[in-house]
Write a structure and sequence with these properties.
single chain; alpha+beta; HIT family, subunit A; five-stranded antiparallel β-sheet; 3 helices; 5 strands; binds zinc ion
Amino acid sequence: MDIFCKIINGEVPTYKLYEDEIVLAFLDVNPNHNGHTLIVPKKHYENFFDIDEETLRHILLIGKNIAKELKEKLNYDGISLCQNNGYGQEVKHFHLHLIPKYENENKLSVEEIYNILK
Ligand SMILES: [Zn+2]
C-alpha cells in the first residue's frame, strides 16, 4: 500500500488542511517552499490517466480554495500547480502539488507552517 493510502486510512499521521468525502489535503513533509500542499483523492487512482473526471474536477476546485486560503495566511507572491505521472512520480497515487513561491522566503518548518494555517 502506498503512503497516501496509509495517510487516508489513518495509519500514518499528517498535517491535514482539508478533508471531505472525496479528497484529503495536507502539507508535504518535504516542502519545496512554505505551505507546499498535496491534494489526493481518497479512492486510489494511480495517475492523471486513470482518475475519473468528477474527482479530477473536484480536486482542482478544492485546490483553488486552498490556494486562496494559503494566500491569505502566508501571503505568497506566486503559486504553482504541479502533477507528475510515471517517470518522476514518486508516489503512485494521484496527487496535485500546490507550491507557493516567494520573492523573499523565510523558510519555516512544516510544524510552524501548520500552526499558522490551522
Ligand atoms: Zn493509494
